[in-house]
Amino acid sequence: MSRAPKWTITSLSQHVSYHDGPNCFNAALVAAGFSDDIVYVDSLEYAFYLESFCSEQVKAPFATGNLLVYLGVEPHPFADQNEIKIQHAAFSLGGGKLIEKTSNRGRLFGKKEGRELPGVYQVKNLSQSAFATRTSGTKLVKAYKCQSAEQVRKKIASLNEDPLAQQLSSLRQKFNDQIQTMAPAYIQGLNEELKAITQAVLSRAGTTEGDLFVAALSRSLFGTIESALEERKEDFDQDLVDSINDFSTASSELVDKINTKTSFTKSKPLLLKY
Question: Which CATH code is given to the segment(s) 9-151?
């Protein structure tokens, strides 16, 4: 049996993230009880949860417990039409309220955004969301009703039995934990581990739900490393930077395979962007 969620809405709203990384997608998943980890979550990982566990809600979009997706558009680099872009995510509390984290910035290095301090998780009215207005770039808000936290956590535990998924999750958590006390370049065996993970990601066929999960975790790991790199560039030597770039390329290639070989109905049109 899976563990009960670690966080409540009250405890999450009182939490402050001091380092860059943890973001709106993570905040929504933690608020839903799907994850206990305060980490960076890529939009693709958020899309994975929508794909695997949720269905769109049109009649009662802001009912208690719904995951919210704020969508905008951006110009396509090689075509005339625009592409859908995910802007933001939040968790609906019902009664016209939500909980959200506005950005991936932490308290130590982030700048105040409007009236909000960086690193905070806030309960607020729907209209007070940083992405509620057209000026934020949001064109549409979609809502998804999901399976229970217990059901979701049980399936995620099963997917995490994949050794590569375990490696990706473990390294993300290691980065998240150790950046606060240790320079990333000196995390023992980091460069070698990244190179091994890169080869394993390249070997995936891109045809299964497990591959989508691995692709999602790989994007989240890259985002975690990227946040650390932005904070502490001096701690990354060139060999490590090269390994990070190779890993990012491998992750993007796996996403390309998934786009080509699968028909995930929710993720594809919205969130398989990198």
Answer: 3.90.1720
Angle at 189 between CA 184 and CA 192, to 5 degrees: 110
Residue length of the chain: 274
Cα within 13 Å of Cα(151), Cβ side: 7
Distance in angstroms (rounded) separating the CA atoms of residues 170 and 61: 34
For residue 6, report the phi and psi dihedrals to the nearest 5 degrees.
Answer: -75, -35
Residue with tokens 């509620």: 132
Among the listed residues 129, 208, 199, 134, the one whose alpha carbon sits nearest the alpha carbon of residue 167:
199
Pair of tokens at residue 128:
């007070």
pTM of the model: 0.91
Cβ neighbours of residue 60 closer than 8 Å, sequence gap 6 or more: 66
User: Measuring CA to CA, which residue among 17, 20, 18 is closest to residue 232?
Assistant: 20
Q: What token pair was written down for 24?
A: 């709106």
- Give the tens place of pLDDT for each residue, 49-72: 998 999 999 999 999 999 999 988
- The letter for the amino acid at 145 is K
pLDDT in tens, 160-178: 999 999 999 999 998 888 7
CA 166 – CA 196 distance, rounded (Å): 13
Which among 171, 170, 103 is positioned nearest to 131, based on CA atoms?
Answer: 103
Residue indicated by tokens 């966080």: 7
How many angstroms separate the CA atoms of 145 and 147, rounded?
A: 7
CA-to-CA dists, residue 26 to 32, 66, 102, 151, angstroms: 10, 14, 11, 18
Closest CA to 227 of 172, 167, 170: 172
